[in-house]
Design goal:
With about 160 residues, the protein is α+β, with helices and mostly antiparallel strands. Helices cover about 30% and strands about 40% of the residues. Helix 2 (about 35-55) runs antiparallel to helix 3.
Length: about 160
């Protein structure tokens, strides 16, 4: 029987997350990209379209950006489906004024792209001061008939 173990995936994520963060440790080495210039452009265009949909509260844009089987892991432990993530993003009392993405590394293997980087979510909630959540993230994008779509994301707080 062929059994899949999540242990190697979790170890890989643990090793990659600090390297991809906004302020990686001095002893860290950058993630080596494995991508053609055309693939990199396509994947980063999909990331930019997702970002603009978040900022504009564009439900249709998020529907296009997210794969039907989305698994979106938050720093609070929530792991959300496509519908749940869209509903969490588009709320009347909170706006994302910007999403800065830094230290991006793209690795493509067939129709799957792994994107690591730092995410700075600029959030303005009604009745609160603006804040910036600086996180490290690992995205998994898949290319299908609709183009590149986010199928999995795991965000983690920086040390």
């Amino acid at each position: 029987m062929n059994r899949f173990s999540f242990k190697p995936v979790l170890v890989a994520m643990t090793l990659l997350m600090p390297v991809a963060g906004i302020q990686a440790a001095e002893h860290s080495t950058p993630v080596r990209e494995n991508v053609t210039p055309e693939q990199r452009r396509e994947v980063l265009q999909a990331v930019e379209q997702w970002k603009q949909a978040v900022i504009k509260k564009d439900r249709a844009g998020l529907e296009r950006a997210y794969h039907a089987d989305l698994s979106y892991g938050h720093t609070d432990g929530a792991v959300l489906t496509k519908k749940e993530q869209i509903d969490r993003t588009i709320v009347p009392d909170r706006d994302f004024t910007d999403v800065e993405i830094t230290n991006v590394a793209v690795r493509v293997y067939g129709n799957t792209a792994f994107v690591t980087g730092g995410f700075a979510f600029h959030v303005l909630a009604k009745g609160s001061e603006a804040r910036v959540a600086k996180l490290a993230g690992l995205d998994v994008w898949t290319k299908g008939p609709q183009g590149w779509q986010l199928i999995a994301r795991q965000l983690t707080k920086l040390p």
